[in-house]
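Q: What would this chain look like folded?
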Amino acid sequence: MVVTNEKSVSEAIKYRRSVRVFKNEAIDTEKVKECIQLAALAPTSSNMQLWEFYHVVSPEVIQKIAKASFDQNAAKTAQQLVIVVARKDLWRKRVQSNIDYLKNQYGNKPEAAYSKREKFALNYYQKIIPALYFDFLGIIGMIKFVVFQVIGIFKPIYRQARQSDMRIVAHKSAGLAAQNFMISMAAINYDTCPMEGFDSLRIKKILHLPASAEINMILGCGIRDENGVYGERFRIPFEETYFKI
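A: My prediction, written as structure tokens:
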């Protein structure tokens, strides 16, 4: 992305604020798209990339989403919207994508020719990840949770195996991508506002999303109005949140 006066990472983090009111000034759609591409470079659990990004540029759709977001100023005045969606339901597809990628990297050779490290990587996606993500009405996940707690008495083990736990994993990765996006936008002097206040069912209908998709957050995008930031930044004293061990 070639942008003049682009901020450093530290400058962008300090510049970023949740902007509640945007100027009625257009922003470059392609630059926003490039920031979404940077969002997709965020770290993601097991490289599963259980996310989708909906870049809304239509004024009519923005108006609908704003209404479903309780007419928040950050939505009503946004020039564009980016909606980050967690897609835990796509885990099988993402697993296969990783397997295909690994096999291509390894040279599409017979399984017997794989090195120990290559076999481990493939086994991770062919067996371990499906064992974690597969569930049925939450029942299997609860059984796995109980079994893992028992095993954990004797040795360290991954304990978050319930359906709700895997949802959290998907949302954590989606949140990391959203942060990448906001910092990337700040670096080019564009502003954002992450919103969690919305009617998720209505938003999914507007975007034609399946019931299994989950809205992680809605991001208003634009250039901050002079009154767009509602006050000085407040943070709990760092000493209350930092613990050196």
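Residues 111 and 124 are 15 Å apart (CA to CA).
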